Amino acid sequence: xxxxxxxxxxxxxxxxxxxxxxxxxxxxxxxxxxxxxxxxxxxxxxxxxxxxxxxxxxxxxxxxxxxxxxxxxxxxxxxxxxxxxxxxxxxxxxxxxxxxxxxxxxxxxxxxxxxxxxxxxxxxxxxxxxxxxxxxxxxxxxxxxxxxxxxxxxxxxxxxxxxxxxxxxxxxxxxxx
Length: 177
Known about the structure:
alpha+beta, 2 domains, 9 strands, extended, Aste57867_13247 protein
């Protein structure tokens, strides 16, 4: 029996370093070629990518860890503005400009504007997860139909903060929710 010393560690001759184990069936180039042939719509999850590219999910995960070039990225939707939309937005912003005596423009103080917004919420979700002990019961949640869960609207309004000379106090601009 032979003995090998690698970095101060003694190995027996029956241990084969670096060439043992199952051979890889997918090379990095093959994985990259298979993934790049899949359209972006089918690359949203690792499971859908594995199904569309015929590369196992665990192989893709290992490839991501070893190569480091394949990663998940977030992509947000951006508004598609036409030239007319852009022009209307610029005109709206220009409507708040007031000419001054020195030839420059200043923005309106916006003391006469109130911004109002609404937001709808469901009172409950159809499926919820609770952490309970063995001796506890989960509370009964019932609705007439899971398709018609009651919605609630919150209405919020906000204005520009300002000083009120009558009360000699500052108004924070929050009118309520």
